[in-house]
Amino acid sequence: MEIIMLRMFLFIGVGLFILALRRPPQKDWLLIFFVTAYFGSFIGALVVEKNLISYPVTFLKPPFQSSVLFEFLLLPVLSMYYYQTSYHSNVFGFIWQAASYSSVMTIIEFFLERYTDLIEYHQWKWYFTLITVFTFLICVRSLMWVINKKSGMLKDPKLQ
């Protein structure tokens, strides 16, 4: 059952990735995707290495035991959609959206941990996921703001 769920998450992630790239500016969406995957892989590997979380069932066996599907596809896609929906938001708006996205991700992870073998908490709690995903989304969005500001791509006056 878990392998079927992983395949389902893979197809959903790839589908959402393709849909996200249909809107301009694709450069920003791809940059968000790759930045999130890059930093997410380090954080995920650290969390697994410290034995806070484990992933008993995976279909991709990397040299490290973190969730390749989550760190290299699902979290980056979530970050892309968060950035797309909060692109023109003010500070309150993008904080609210980060809280919403991280809450949904936390609820899904909570049920996956409780009812499947896809994830197992050792020294981890659901609210750690909520806090880390929320903080991660805010940090990546802030990094993109700095990149766009420095490159002169930021044109929305309420974001400057």
TrEMBL record:
Keywords: Membrane, Transmembrane, Transmembrane helix. InterPro entries: CBO0543-like. The keyword Hydrolase does not apply. The chain crosses the membrane at residues 6-22, 29-48, 68-84, 91-112, 124-147. It comes from the Bacteria. This is ABC-transporter type IV. It comes from Halobacillus naozhouensis.
